[in-house]
């Protein structure tokens, strides 16, 4: 599966199948949330939140790809990520794009 953030895939003629998406709401462990709060006071990267967001993006992307595969897609174009805070210590990640099939 080829995944790109452009509206084309070089050298391929594309047939549009439709929009696909994947999402997840993920939260951090309360103990780590407290430690990150303390880190927020002094500045610096909140590595536990970075790890949480990376994991959430990977899961959301996997779900999007699975949806595209059920449509028989060869690739996904125009991929975009969106995130939003749902509550303190939890975030929603959504990824969406257009599933395409390669024309011969």
From TrEMBL:
Source superkingdom: Bacteria
Pfam families listed in its UniProt record: YbjQ_1
InterPro entries membership: UPF0145_dom_sf (IPR035439), UPF0145_YbjQ-like (IPR002765)
Stated family: Belongs to the UPF0145 family.
HAMAP family: UPF0145
Protein name: UPF0145 protein SAMN05192551_1169
